Amino acid sequence: MSTGDQQSRIPAYPGVERFVDAFDKLVVQPRRSRSRVPVVLLSEPGDGQAGRRIVAGLRTRLRGREGRLAPHACVPAAPADPAEPPLDLFEQIAFQLDASMPPGTGRLRLPSYRLLRAVVCAPAAGGLMERRPGELLDHCYAQHREVSGLARGLWWLGGRDQANGGTLLELLWNFIAGPLFQRLPRALYGRRANRRMLGRGRSGGRRWYAEWVRQQQGTPPSEFFRSALDLVGGGPEGDPEQLDRILVHALLADLEAAGRKRAFDPWRRRRVSRFVLLVEEAGPAESRIQRFLRELRSAMEDLRCTSVVAVAAGVRTLASRIPDIEVPGLSAAGADLANIAQRGTPPGRPSGMVVPVEEGPEDDQAATYWLGRWPTLAPPTHRWGPGVEVAGALGAGVLALVVAAGLLVGVPFTTVGPDPCLGSTFLGTDGQCVGVAEGAASFGTGDSERAVRDVLQRIEQQNEQVEQELSGRDADDPRPRSRTVVYFGPLSGGKDAEDPVRGGTLAELRGLALAQAYVNAQALRTGERVPLRVLAANAGDRFKDAPAVARRIVDLAEKDRSIVGVVGFGQSRRRTYEAMGILGEAGLPMVGTSGTADELLRQGEHYYQTAPTDARAGQVMASFAEHAAMVDGRTAVRVRLIADPSDAYSASLATAFRSAYGDGRTDMLLYTPTDAPEPSPVPGGPVGPSVQAMEDLAREVCRAVAAEPRTAVVWAGRGSHLQLFLGELARDSRDCPKVAVLGGDDVTNALTEEHRPWEVFAGLTLYYVSHGRAPALSGASGEAAAFLSAYDRTYADDHGARTGGMRQDAHVALAWDAMRYLAEGVDQAWRGTGGNDERLDRGLLQAVLYQGLGGGGFDGATGRIEAHGAAGGGRLTEKKLTAVEQGGAKGSRTVLLCGTVARGDVRDVWGPEKHPCP
């Protein structure tokens, strides 16, 4: 260490360097990546002192030569004094935390703790019940004046007696001084206390105290000082555990608030370290300190507190009231804490970590070397002090006023600001707004995104209709309140991006909006279903910003319990997998809106799929290529399989087709676009010769068709690149005037181009997979008929070149089914609560989906959905309806249909020859 004697140094026990390194990282971890940290309990046998020496060394690390490095408090190992007031422990901690604030970080104010301390210390109220809240307010305001110079000064001004001469001025002063400087500040103090402890209303935005009272009494309080009468004297019958519980919650709530940045507070901005609580001796299970530690752990979990790190030594015995994480030693504890610093604490993890330590050799070479290199904590520093920053801000403000005045005189203002991102959105990889928003205000304004914005505005209007309907209901209305679903997909893109219409997003959003209207119409009419709101989460062009946006969704879900699930994930990409991992760790159920790679179902047990997997699509394509007369009226004898090895969807579909069709008749060609978001090959993906340019790809295909006219092309790539391929074929079609192409379900996105594929290349015969096109099912499925009716009512007048034929696109119907699937799960979860709306959250929805929907599923717009859940064997429909369509200028027609159309209607064969379905 740089300071202190030998006893204040951290002993070089084996593994202590990993523990201290993780401790340092957690203390200085940036705010945006923090999560709850379990309380570290250093357990020691007998009368060992190893833990106390580690705690003493940690305390020394937090001290600097010229000022404290991180705010901290250390509870000394003093023998318990029966006569010691119960609040002395809290006063010690509050005093030490304030005294150890690093330079330039301001004073530590603990308003909630000071308020509740004044409440529990108040004398027992007597007299009429109606007057007791006012008397308690008077007592708390008197305590507040002792720590607030402004309140004390105003009180003094209001109490001065200047009526010694009887002049008019003196009489006027006596008339206004008391109300203005005493009663008005006291009333404002009471109002602020009410807002601070209860929040903004009974129905939403409750603070921790209001939630705590609701858990104790069953209903939330309406007035703080009336509800706080139960705490006067330490609570009912002076229960010490309840006293500790309420004060620990208040202290942690204040520390959490003190650790947040404020836009115009340079002192707050310099609070870059967590608050550290150190305990030298925890003692036995029923000791005063152990009781405090139990309440501290529970409060950190209840409040999701991320601003405190606590380490307690001398844990002689552990109470069995709270589960713990047990690790074998300091090295393992360091590894676990480092993992928490990097990835966060999963929900539901225990709030304490037991680390056994004992006296031993202090000459571990790795520990000695590390402690020598890093003898003290090294928090980040600011170049300028807060005073300089305030002066700079004032100067910048004056300059801005001057510039604004100049603009006002000479240049008209524009309506577009420098940063159009609002709310929970931020600038993404392509310079477009990504994140979560309600409506379309924060997303792109390009021509290709106008149709997307129209749908987002429709969703926003439907959200407002739900809110208006529910706002008129009484608080005791038995009907359920609304829940929120987040759509996760690419809503905009920058230069050279894949526009949302061509990428399938518009089709999914239309289906989602139609399903929301359908679900809410039933819910608001009957009161027996749960109405749904929808938020839009823009994951960026081809999901480039998906992980960051997923974290934003998780943050919102932590604050808003009405968010119960996520739909979308229309593109299987590696960043999509990362985002699903983040959402799954937070316990958010996810439902896919498109046919995707099988890998998505391996991203945890919170993802459910309504579309067939790529494995099934590949088998269907192989059966069609084997038996269909798709090449100039004859079956194909060879196949040119084109895939993108960097795209998870393309790699999965190509691998499935090749495995089902056979290697002997399949020639692989690999092509990765130059603008691929993830250009490296997918692990375990297809192998074969590759080409560098689309021109080379078209040339290789033409050579194969010229050598063998009965060669079919199987396109496993994205539909957005098919048009480019056909364009190159059209320029070099002398050797291949006709080509038959069989594509995956993503090829349907190419049908939204202004020029259809057969218009780009006149010799094209196009077949493509469709995951249950609703027009083919309307006669056999009532759900498909309802979907088409809703679509025609909304988009009958849409005759756009790119969107007029979207009624035929299965992506719209798949999104309808995904929303209906999630809505059905929410309804069953609500019914399972017995009408207790408070119990309906994402955890209960996950339990319902995991066990499987009642009734075994439902007939969807894209065929029968067997929703038996993960507990029943899977999270998808095994024999989901799959079709192959033949596209052309006269419209599409179904040439293969396999799977379950509706209950009791299963298609086992296809074609005139009755070929068996895969």
TrEMBL record:
Domain of life: Bacteria
Chain segments carrying region Disordered: 463-482
InterPro entries registered for this protein in UniProt: BCAA_transport (IPR051010), Peripla_BP_I (IPR028082)
Biased composition (Basic and acidic residues): 470-480
PANTHER family the record matches: LEUCINE-SPECIFIC-BINDING PROTEIN, PERIPLASMIC BINDING PROTEIN OF ABC TRANSPORTER FOR NATURAL AMINO ACIDS
Annotated protein name in UniProt: ABC transporter substrate-binding protein
Organism: Streptomyces kurssanovii
